[in-house]
User: Which sequence fits this backbone?
C-alpha cells in the first residue's frame, strides 16, 4: 500500500496562488503514476492533473491547463501541485492519489488516496 498525506491548502483570493504537497510512504512511490483530483460540494470527484512515474509526462484537465503545474520529486516521495491564477470555481477539496489501472483521467483508476486538503478561493 501507499499512504498519502496532503498539505498546503487554505483560503486565497482570486488571482492568488497556492502550492499543494503530497507526501507518500509505504510501497515504492516511483512505481506509481500520481494524480490530483478535486471534489466541490455536491459534485463528483474530478481529475485535475496527473504525472508519469518519471515526471516526464504530465496531464491536465482543460479547466486548469496553463494555470496549474504538477511535479514530483521521487527522492523525497512527494508530488506537488502549483496552482496559479486561482478562480472561485477552483474551490474544492483536493486529493492526491496513486494511479493503478485504467485511464489516469478518471477517479476510478486510483486505488490509494490521501485525506484531502481544502482549497477555498474568494472572489
Assistant:
Amino acid at each position: 500500500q501507499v499512504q498519502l498525506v496532503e498539505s498546503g491548502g487554505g483560503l486565497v483570493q482570486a488571482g492568488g496562488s497556492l502550492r499543494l504537497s503530497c507526501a507518500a510512504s509505504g510501497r515504492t512511490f516511483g512505481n506509481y503514476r500520481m494524480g490530483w483530483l478535486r471534489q466541490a460540494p455536491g459534485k463528483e470527484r474530478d481529475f485535475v492533473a496527473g504525472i508519469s512515474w518519471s515526471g516526464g509526462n504530465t496531464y491536465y484537465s482543460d479547466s486548469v491547463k496553463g494555470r496549474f503545474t504538477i511535479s514530483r520529486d521521487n527522492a523525497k516521495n512527494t508530488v506537488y501541485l502549483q496552482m496559479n491564477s486561482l478562480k472561485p470555481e477552483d474551490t474544492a477539496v483536493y486529493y492526491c492519489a496513486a494511479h493503478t489501472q485504467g485511464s489516469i483521467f478518471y477517479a476510478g483508476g486510483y486505488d490509494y488516496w490521501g485525506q484531502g486538503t481544502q482549497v477555498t478561493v474568494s472572489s
User: Anything to note?
Assistant: Residues 59 and 65 are 9 Å apart (CA to CA).
